[in-house]
């Protein structure tokens, strides 16, 4: 995941707006209390997500994969007044932490937090989304993409995280693990989809940004 020279990465972060106090606190708590804390988006990617939502000005956002809620809070920064962000995660053990930070940031009316299987929950959402952020189990990336596509407005966006998968996408052989194969399949699927325009940004572990034509 660490593709940049550490000094250059520090320079990039030092020249990007700092995360707010609540996000800093959530970042620290995630790293001190939660397994696999690197799943958290973190400062730079969080600021990128915030900037993108400020540019897009979405009314409805869907996030697949909440983890501890950091990315949801960043994405919600650019919501239009009265907008709603739906975020889904299967790990109920993190609910208390997620809800605590949603409340601490005053976003209870803006973030709708669902716990359960996203493949089951997404069809129940009677919404059309301006933006979908996919950051959950990698083996289902293509399934999530297919499931949400009809729920994305024309001109809307799908953003998928971890599409460089720590560089493993360059390794394609019979010994490649299922997650890597799934990411390679997803990236190829998007490239072949003539319904969209896409660009892969080498930010952190890779963000695939897709615009529905």
Strand order of the largest sheet: 3-2-1-4-5-7-6
Rg on CA atoms, Å = 16 Å
Shape: globular
CATH architecture group name = 3-Layer(aba) Sandwich
Low-confidence stretches: none
Task: Report the helical percentage.
Answer: 25-40%
Under the CATH scheme, which class? Answer: Alpha Beta
List the helices and strands and how they pair.
Layout: H1 6-14, H2 21-33, H3 42-56, E1 60-64, H4 70-76, E2 84-89, H5 95-104, E3 111-115, H6 118-121, E4 129-134, H7 141-149, E5 152-161, H8 178-191, E6 196-201, E7 207-212
Parallel strand pairs: 1-2, 1-4, 2-3, 4-5
Antiparallel strand pairs: 5-7, 6-7
Describe the 3D structure.
- The structure is a single chain.
- The protein is an alpha/beta fold.
- The protein has one domain (6-212): Vaccinia Virus protein VP39 (Rossmann fold, 3-Layer(aba) Sandwich), CATH 3.40.50.150.
- It has helices at residues 6-14, 21-33, 42-56, 70-76, 95-104, 118-121, 141-149, 178-191, and strands at 60-64, 84-89, 111-115, 129-134, 152-161, 196-201, 207-212.
- A seven-stranded mixed beta sheet has the order 3-2-1-4-5-7-6, sandwiched between helices.
- Helix 3 (42-56) runs parallel beside helix 4 (70-76).
- The longest helix is centred in the N-terminal third of the chain and has 15 residues, at 42-56.
- The model has no long low-confidence stretch (mean pLDDT 95).
């Amino acid at each position: 995941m660490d593709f940049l020279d550490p000094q250059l990465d520090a320079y990039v972060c030092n020249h990007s707006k700092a995360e707010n106090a609540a996000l800093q606190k959530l970042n620290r708590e995630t790293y001190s209390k939660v397994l696999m804390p690197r799943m958290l988006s973190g400062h730079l990617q969080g600021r990128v997500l915030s900037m993108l939502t400020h540019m897009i000005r979405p009314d409805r956002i869907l996030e697949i994969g909440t983890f501890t809620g950091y990315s949801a809070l960043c994405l919600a920064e650019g919501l239009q007044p009265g907008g709603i962000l739906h975020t889904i995660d299967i790990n109920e053990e993190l609910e208390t932490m997620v809800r605590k930070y949603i409340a601490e940031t005053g976003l209870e009316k803006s973030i709708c937090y669902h716990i359960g299987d996203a493949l089951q929950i997404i069809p129940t959402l009677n919404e059309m989304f301006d933006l979908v952020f996919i950051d959950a189990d990698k083996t289902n990336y293509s399934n999530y993409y297919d499931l949400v596509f009809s729920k994305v407005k024309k001109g809307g966006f799908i953003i998928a995280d971890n599409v460089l998968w720590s560089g493993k996408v360059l390794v394609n052989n019979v010994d490649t693990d299922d997650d890597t194969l799934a990411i390679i399949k997803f990236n190829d699927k998007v490239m072949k989809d003539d319904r969209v325009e896409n660009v892969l940004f080498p930010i952190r572990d890779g963000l695939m940004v897709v615009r529905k034509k």
